[in-house]
Design brief:
single chain; mainly alpha; 7 helices; 134 residues
C-alpha cells in the first residue's frame, strides 16, 4: 500500500510541476490499489499544482484529470467522471496534444457515456456526443 502524507511530500518536493508529476504518479498507484479516496486527493492535488504553475489550460493539467476520470469510470462512477473527462479532452484538443493522448481521453469518455447509456433514464439522455468546436 502506498502511504500518502501530503505534508511530508510537500517538505520533500515543494509545490512545483515536478511535485505535480510525483502526485500524478502516486495517483496511478492508488488507482491500481482501488483506493478512490486517495486517488481523488492525489490527482486533484496534481491538477491544482499544474494549473497554478502552468495555467489551467496547460496540457499537463489533463494528465491527472484523465487519471481521475479513468479511476472514476473503473469504480462505476461514470456520471462523476464525465465532466472531468470532458475538461481533459477540451484541454488536450485545444493544446493540440499528441493524437494518442487525445484518443486515450476520447476512449475513456466513450466508456463513461456507454455506461450511462446502459443505465438509461434521464442521466443518459443528457449526455451529448463530444463535438470539437474550434
Amino acid at each position: 500500500m502506498v502511504r500518502y502524507d501530503r505534508r511530508g511530500h510537500r517538505r520533500l518536493l515543494g509545490n512545483g510541476h515536478r511535485a505535480a508529476s510525483v502526485y500524478n504518479n502516486l495517483g496511478e498507484l492508488a488507482a491500481a490499489e482501488d483506493d478512490l479516496e486517495r486517488v481523488r486527493a492525489l490527482f486533484d492535488h496534481a491538477a491544482r499544482i499544474f494549473a497554478n504553475g502552468l495555467g489551467a489550460e496547460h496540457p499537463n493539467v489533463a494528465y491527472p484529470l484523465q487519471g481521475l476520470g479513468l479511476a472514476l469510470v473503473d469504480a462505476g462512477r461514470a456520471g462523476e467522471a464525465l465532466p472531468i473527462l470532458e475538461r481533459a479532452l477540451a484541454i488536450r484538443v485545444k493544446s493540440k496534444t499528441a493524437p494518442m493522448l487525445v484518443a486515450e481521453t476520447e476512449v475513456t469518455r466513450a466508456r463513461a457515456v456507454s455506461i450511462l447509456a446502459i443505465l438509461g433514464g434521464a442521466r443518459a439522455a443528457t449526455v451529448a456526443p463530444w463535438r470539437v468546436t474550434q
